[in-house]
Amino acid sequence: MTLTDPFTISIISIVCLGVLGLPIGHAMIASSILYLMLAGLDMGTAAEQLLNGMFSSYILLAVPLFIVAAELMNAGSMTLRLLAFCNAFVGRFPGGLALVNVVQSIIFAGMSGSAIADAAGGGKLMQKMMTEGGKYPPAFAAALTAATAVIGPIIPPSIPMVIYALVSDASIGYLFLAGVVPGLLMGLAQALIVIVSARRRRFPVEPPVPLRDLPRVTLDAFPALMMPVVLLGGIYGGATTPTEAAAIAAFYALLISALLYRSISFSTAYDSLLASAKSTASVGMLIAGALVFNYVVTVENIPAALSAWLSGFDLSPLGFLLMVNLVLLVLGCLLEGTTILLIVIPVLIPTAQALGIDMVHFGVVCVVNIMLGLITPPYGLLLFIMTSISGCSLRQIVREILPFLAALLVSLLLITLLPGLSLWLPRLFGYNG
């Protein structure tokens, strides 16, 4: 491979266009077309790969539907009621509001499937609640919100796992189940950091909610709490596919917000649909660009070449997984998560399969790595979101997030070393991997 090689030129083109500010999806499409021209291949191949990939993947419809569900929950009062429910149960402990932040992220994870939706929805409310009256330093509140939002795509439903299922042919149902225990483990790790920080920094305790009010608070939040039950019950009860369940989730969020809570109007519903369309278009362009570029990678036989190169190191399955962790953590500092899922992961899958690594466990390890990239500088998209929401500097937030990042890295190591953490629940439901 030389500097004048078509593939090398296409890689350089992607990097240069990205640095100049062109969205990465557009950069991949343009660079793939450049490769086809230089390699003398049929230009219609790009369109063919894009159309075949987009229209033959029914599972991809779940992505915009989960985005719509999350937007409708944020527009209505579902998030507020969930926060009140969490506060009633854990707000009375040291660092109570910080623990509420962790618990609400675990609950919200069972509804949105998106870390960004979690941070932009419940995260805004938590930032305001935690900083009112100087209860918590703004940077600590922002760092905790970014760290807890990472749980969103691990506990089902999960948009990144939908995309991983697209590139790996793994069962989306079993992938969803595999994320439950790792997600709870990550939440527990963050709660422990909160408890230690609360005692050391003397964070305030919230006034306890009287026991007589608990049934009312629970009943008020009950319709929102039922959303994960409706969503996952349909999938694992065999009544719906994941895509159909995503559609039901979006309709359920609209129904509860509009008819039961009466907290959403036509204008706010329209704004939610418009925001969902923008997010979907952004994700769609990434997927389209990746599908075309994956054809280029296949033509160049990159997966086979990489597999042959890695086999020279005589890696064990565990050694390979540890190497993948290192590579993905570094890439997560620089690249957007969907790009990694669509471009890098397909290249690693053949080697993982050859080593006998379970594709469901591998998917969980990959998705956790990619989510950690959202809170790892210098790229760290969630860090930038919380910088905008909180008004704190990036340096302040990074300093506060380091203990949470360390706890999450320990969780990742346990998930990697102990496949049973991911596979116990799927096997309980009949998975044979």
Q: What is shown here, in short?
A:
This protein is mainly alpha-helical. Helices cover 76% and strands 0% of the residues. The mean pLDDT is 81.
Structure in words:
It is a single chain. The relative contact order is 0.14. The protein is mostly helical. The chain has helices spanning 6-19, 24-39, 44-55, 62-75, 78-90, 96-112, 115-120, 122-131, 138-149, 159-168, 172-178, 180-201, 214-236, 242-260, 266-299, 302-311, 317-332, 337-354, 359-372, 381-390, 394-417, 420-428. It folds into two domains: 1-41, no CATH class; 59-428, no CATH class. The protein is 76% helix and 0% strand. Helix 3 packs across helix 15, helix 10 crosses helix 18 (337-354) and helix 12 (180-201) crosses helix 21. The model has no long low-confidence stretch (mean pLDDT 81).
Helix and strand topology:
Blueprint: H1 6-19, H2 24-39, H3 44-55, H4 62-75, H5 78-90, H6 96-112, H7 115-120, H8 122-131, H9 138-149, H10 159-168, H11 172-178, H12 180-201, H13 214-236, H14 242-260, H15 266-299, H16 302-311, H17 317-332, H18 337-354, H19 359-372, H20 381-390, H21 394-417, H22 420-428
Helix pairs in contact: 1-2, 2-15, 3-15, 4-14, 4-15, 5-6, 5-13, 6-8, 6-9, 6-12, 8-9, 9-20, 9-21, 10-18, 10-19, 11-22, 12-21, 13-14, 15-18, 16-18, 17-18, 17-19, 18-19, 19-21
Descriptive tags:
2 domains; globular; mainly alpha; 433 residues
**Low-confidence blocks of residues:** none
- By DSSP (H or I, 4+ residues per run), the number of helices equals 22
Query: Could you give a short account of the major beta sheet?
Result: none
Order of helices and strands: HHHHHHHHHHHHHHHHHHHHHH
